[in-house]
Amino acid sequence: MADQTTTALLDPALADAADGPVVLAARLHQRGMRRTARHRHVRGQLLGAHQGLLRIAADDLHWLLPAGHVAWIPPLLPHALLGADGFDGWSLYFCAAACLELPAQPRIFQPNALLQAAVMRALQWPYTALDAAQARLAGVIADEITASTPLPLALPQPQDRRLQRIAAALARTPHDTRSIEDWATRSGLSSRSLARRWQAETGMTLSQWRQRLRVLLSLPRLLAGEPVISVALSLGYETPSAFIAVFKREMGVTPARYSGG
User: Fold this and answer.
1) Helix or strand or coil: residue 12?
2) In 3D, which of 179, 148, 184 has the Cα closest to residue 165?
3) Where are the alpha helices (DSSP H) in the chain?
4) Got the DSSP string for 113-156?
């Protein structure tokens, strides 16, 4: 991600303060692209988007946060954000002491009704010490983060520049069905060398990586109510059933079940 910055959800001084309220809340609606350079803060961050798709780069992973999901970013984890179609979202920042009981690894998950309601209440809190009722609700939010089930929404990124170009091309045109031999010729590598390098740098075969990418890109469209058949065909699948099989293997549920249809 390029080192361009846009409006921070929370004053960096507050995000890095050792004291202050257990939870600080922030909301932002911004038209166009939202991009933040790689950064980190002392407070752990729970963030969500009301619309669109937010890309989160953390370490050597790229996470996709679809609308309707939330991401947990532990304290001091370097990360960068990119929302290409406008940002309408929120964040809750937990003090370092509260984070001791929260997951040490980042995760993305679907919030249940309890967490959704609690977050909406917390977003109304001023930047002051929490009263007893607010402290109890903050505890509920923390418990729900800990009890959440992480979804496989991370995509390891290759480090080799030639492989990075392939990854970027597939992200732009996920329906591209070129074979590994075709990509190898384009990159100046043998197919065997490409396959070996891709597996070593991502832990996945190129085919597996492409299937994971397609599933991730399908999520906001499915949640928006787009028919499975149109999503499947636009992503390069010959039949909806082929897409459904891959989706269930990656996500554990069918597209219809995932989107609540």
Assistant:
1) helix
2) 184
3) 12-15, 96-99, 113-122, 132-147, 161-172, 180-187, 191-202, 206-223, 228-234, 240-251, 255-259
4) HHHHHHHHHHTT--SS---HHHHHHHHHHHHHHHH------EEE
Distances in whole angstroms, Cα of residue 117 to Cα of each of 99, 102, 110, 111, 137: 21, 20, 13, 10, 10
User: 157-206, pLDDT tens digit by residue?
Assistant: 888 999 999 998 998 899 998 999 999 998 899 999 999 999 999 999 99
Helix 180-187 / helix 191-202 crossing angle, nearest 10 deg:
100
Backbone CA torsion sign across 103, 108, 109, 115: positive
3-state helix, strand, coil in the chain (%, to 5): 40, 20, 40
Phi, psi of 206 (to 5 degrees): -60, -40
pTM of the model: 0.74
Alpha-carbon distance values, 199 to 46, 184, 229 (Å): 32, 14, 31
Reading the block at residue 249, the tokens are 């293997």
